[in-house]
User: Fold TetR family transcriptional regulator from Falsigemmobacter intermedius.
Amino acid sequence: MSETPMTRIQLENRRRIMEGALEVFSVEGFRGATLDQISAASGLSKPNLLYYFPSKEAIYTRLLTDLLESWLQPLEEMSPEGEPLDEVLRYVQRKLDMSRDMPRESRLFANEMLRGAPQISEVLSGRLRDLVGARAALLSHWMAEGRLKQTPPDHLIISIWALTQHYADFEVQVRAVLGPDRDPYPEAADYLSALFRNLLAP
Assistant:
């Protein structure tokens, strides 16, 4: 039997809970966050919060699951029909844009990884692994055709994550090094584009 669709008010309340939870979890971490803090950040009463989610763990898991969907989308959109180098550079830019536009989400995800990913380990070893495997196979195919230079494709994907997400996860460090008045993202976009173009251009 299908679930009853949520009303507009219910959808808005869930959105407010997710936004409040993101604010709290990204600052306090999972262990430091409380339902009272999430309630205050979302502007909903604690009983109202528990109407939608039975526990802090349920809110956290839903938040991470939704986040992972956003994180996977750019990799899913790497097209076998596209020009290989353009597809990789587009993926790099999308990941850098996400670090700029979604720093709280990136730090939340990084904190979960540091905890050993207890809430989403099945997703990481399932859907994420399958998608990376499929895209690594596509990259290998392009390399075998001579359309990209040979390099370990799975490590290529991991290095893109590391080099783009660093700007969100270590934003304080980046801005301390570059100075508070210097926007790191335009320079990072040019640098990473040149880096991966030099690495991969046949």
